[in-house]
Design a protein that fits this description.
The chain is mainly beta. The protein has 1 helix and 13 strands. Strand 3 and strand 4 (82-93) form a beta hairpin. The chain is globular, with a radius of gyration of 20 Å. Residues 8-21 have low confidence and may be disordered.
């Protein structure tokens, strides 16, 4: 009987998905180090944008994700709307000592719309639709909406020398529940809430340090974020 129970336990453990092989410590703070950039082709309506993100389960060394993303932008005439078609490559690592990794290729379309409330509250609405090709999963899609809010303290704009409060909240919704082989995910994927202190080093270069809380359908975790934002 004991041998039978041990055999059953072994089968169950071996059949668990890889992402469940280590329990995430939700009390441990993670850290994301990020570089965002964008540029325009002189007088053209077209440009480029992208970002590099090194995400850790802890402050450094335990890889959560390495994200490389870039896209072509287009700004329609007589509007502040910015449209993007892009591609991302993501490597996701398991929590803890495991060296297991999952790769993903991602195509995305994005619309970014700026706005303003009064003289000192600067907004951006970002709508993003993703087509995801995740290793060992069926084709997936996801919808994202992010509201960014920047509020300068020491001057009425976000130009050189500005010290500002940076806030955002982003909601992620899965387009499908089934991901293949009888597995499924929730329609709600995750939500991120962020607050940071920013400083404009130059008109085209800003740095932010803040805290983001990410809530998924499985875990809730705090992440420090250090980001550089570069327009050239």
């Amino acid at each position: 009987m004991r041998t039978l129970l041990l055999s059953l336990l072994t089968v169950i453990l071996l059949s668990l998905p890889k992402q469940l092989s280590a329990q995430v410590d939700e009390s441990q703070y993670g850290a994301w180090y990020m570089y965002f950039w964008n540029t325009n082709f002189k007088e053209s309506k077209f440009g480029l944008q992208g970002d590099i993100q090194y995400r850790n389960w802890n402050l450094g060394g335990d890889l959560e994700q390495l994200l490389l993303r870039g896209g072509v932008t287009y700004k329609p005439e007589n509007t502040d709307l910015l449209l993007t078609l892009g591609y991302g490559h993501i490597t996701t690592g398991a929590f803890g000592d495991s060296d297991e990794k999952v790769t993903e290729s991602r195509i995305y379309q994005e619309a970014l719309m700026p706005g303003q409330i009064g003289q000192r509250i600067f907004l951006k609405h970002r709508f993003r639709y993703e087509q995801r090709f995740v290793e060992n999963q069926d084709f997936r899609t996801r919808y994202r909406y992010n509201l960014f809010v920047n509020i300068p303290f020491n001057q009425p704009d976000l130009d050189e020398g500005a010290v500002y409060l940076a806030l955002y909240n982003e909601l992620f919704i899965n387009g499908e529940r089934s991901i293949g082989e009888g597995r499924s995910v929730e329609i709600f994927d995750r939500n991120r809430s962020y607050a940071a202190l920013g400083y404009a080093i130059k008109n085209n270069l800003k740095v932010q340090l803040g805290l983001m809380r990410q809530i998924t359908d499985n875990i809730s975790k705090n992440q420090w974020q250090l980001s550089l934002h570069h327009n050239f």
